[in-house]
Structures are given as structure tokens and as C-alpha cells.
Amino acid sequence: MILFGMFMDLLDGGVLNVALPEIQQEMGASSAALQWMVAGYALSFALGLITGGRLGDIYGRKRVFVIGMALFTLTSVLCSVAQSPGQLVAARVAQGLAASLMVPQVMATIQVMYAPSERGRPITAAGALYAITSVLGPIIGALLTESDIAGLGWRTIFLVNVPVGVIALIAAIRYVPESRSETAVRLDLAGVLLAGLAMLLLLYPLVAGREAGWPAWTFVSMAASLPVFAIFVAHQRRKVDSPLVPLSLFRHGSFTGGLLILLLAMGGVVGFFLVFTVYLQDGLGYDVMRAGVTGIWWGIASSVFAALAINLLAARMGRLVVQIGLLTVVAGLLGLMWVTRSLDAEVTPGSLVVPLLLGGAGMGFAISLVFDFALSSVPLDDAGAASGVLNAFQQAASAVGIAVVGALFFALMPTGEPGGAEWAADSSDAFATAMWLPVGMTLLAFAASFLLPRQAAHHDTAP
The pTM is what? Predict the structure, then answer.
């Protein structure tokens, strides 16, 4: 039941993206407001993740999870009743902060609930959930928006969190054991401030830069994040008692390798899905439902191959499953590039099925096991901090992927009045060219995969 926390966070982002046009029409929101409905959540979520993980270590992971889940459910209601773009942006920022309390406790609680020999399956199931929900979210969002249940329209995408949140709260209170770190006894407030400032300097320009036209201050801010990160690391080195991020985590090759794979591969895939959705709707003229359903093959393949990786291949093949998966994602992305460039204006949903299946299969293989490898050798006392760091890097990767892949794609998209064969053909070329970035990021993730051990620490090699 603890996985409901991760499920709600992942679903929330996916369902919102496809509902943005309807929100804009009903509220009269500007394009900047729409961007901040997405970016405000991502920014507050990323800023709070490391702190949220450490709060669970100190005050109890179950307690912090329950508080985060209750606040996430409440802020979902606030999102659903928002009457103006400003109100919705503010509610989304609060929702991101709630998620930063809730999500890090998921992996940390799994670490302490299960013995090392039993831990692989729930951790890899969490990875599979990430792979599946991140793809199926837009489809669910399209169904909820188009169904217009009780005349609520887009508001149902937030209200769906309420029954799920209530069930998860009851189950967590009743079934999840309490746990906390024996070594983390107080919160490193200086570390919180330094980490938050560094993340803000890096992520704020990434999420706001494209809309602002990438003025000079965005690059100055990103450059300024580097010395602040360096000061944070120096502070953590000197902090003997309860550091916010135990630097000993990075001595584990499995943790560092898993973190780099999440940073690179997930950044590339998130960037791909942003431009893929825009390409289908703005480039090819698909409606919300058709665009959402077109990507379903990626989600189906992700779920099937994640189950195969978890249940049959992880213990036998270990790291090789992740590596095969990453190369298969590359094959799927290259296939999409070939189809869209070859067919131009004649691209159809059917022509995209095979490369989407390939990409989804690779994602199911790779990402479903990354969390398992990354956390398998982490000491239990640092489970919350490790989970927070992984999730923070994952959110940073999403912001980077959206920024760099989106910037290239939008720069290449045709200008003028949308519609017609020439517009669709130019959009196909823009999409195919932009895909070189996620391909390159995934290949770098493949190189990083050699930092992983051949087997996760708690797996026994099959005879």
C-alpha cells in the first residue's frame, strides 16, 4: 500500500499535461501560467525531497508519510476548486511540497520493512510502477477530461486523488510499521538552506527559461548553482552529526551508478514524452484522446517487460537486464526518428506502434531494476536520505530533459498558421532532430550502467 504514494505523484503529473488546453480555455490562463502549473509543482517537489527524506529518518517514516499523504490529498482538493490561474499555481506548489514529504518515505520504508533477501521484488515493483504510470498518466488524463464526469471537466484529474489518498492513509496507518534512523537525530538546517538554494538556482531558470526567452539571468543563475553546491558538499563533509546527505552514499558504486542512470535516462525519456505529446497535437493535429491513446503501446510494453525483468531475469542476469533495456530504448527512439522523418505528413498511429513497443520494452527492463541496484547496499539508517537524493535527482533530470529537449524541439518547429501537409512534415523533421538529445542521454546512461555491480547486493545468482 505504501506504493500508492509514488503512484499518486506520478499519475498527477501525467494527467495534468493533457488537460492543460482545457484549463487554458476555461480559465483564460496565459501560456506562462500553464507552464507554472507544471513547473511550480516540479520545483517545490524537487526543493523539498532531500529534506523530506531526512525528516522521515529523524521523526519516523510512517509518520512523515501519513502527514505528506494527508496534505497531498488536501492540496488535490484545493487544485480542483481553484477559480483562477494564480490559485491553481499556488495549490500546485503546495501539492509539490506535500509530495516531497510523502514520496521519499516509499523506498525508505521498503528498505526497512523487508529483509535484504526479500527486498528486491518490492523495490523493482516500484521501479516498474514509475515506468508504467509515467506513460499511462496522459491516457488516464485524457479519459477523465473527455468524460466530463458530473460536468467537472478537468477538475476530475485532481479529485481522483481523494479516494486513492483516503485508502492509502487508512492502509498506511493500519499496516505500515514505524521506523526511524538510529544515527540521524536532528535536521541539518544549514544543509537544508544550502541544498535548497543550490537546487533553486539550477532548476528555476530551467523551468522558466524557455518561456522568458532564455535571458542572461537564467545562465548566470545556473552557473551560480555550482559554487553553492560546492559549499553544500564542503558543509556535509564537515558535518559529523546527522548530515542532510551522508556523502558515504556515493562510495557505493551501485548508488552512484543508479543515480546517474536516473538522471540521464529518465531526463531523456521525460523530455521525449513532452515533445512527443506536443508533436502529435500541434504538429499532426491529433485531439487529446487520440494523442493519449497513441502512446499506449509504450505503457503496455513497459508493464509487460518490467514484470519479466522483476520475476524472471533480475536474479539471473542482473546488470545485463538494465543494459539491454537502455539499448532497447535507444533502438525505439531511433525507430521513431526513422518513421517520422520517412513518412513526414503521412505519420499515423499505426506506423508508430513498433518503435513505441521497443522503447517501452527497454524502459520496463531498465528502470524497473535501477531503484533495486541503487538502494541495495545503502545502510538502513540512511534509507530516507538515499531515497530523497534519488528522487531529487530524478526531478532535476525531468527539468533538465524538458528544458533541453523542449528548447531544441520548439526552436525547430515551424512558425505561422498550424495545419496542412507542409506543417506536419516540418513538425516531423523537428521531432526527429530533437530526438538525438534523448538518444545521447540514454547512451550516456548505458555507459554509467557499468558502475553497477553485476548483481544487486541482495540477489543470489541463479545456478
Answer: 0.76
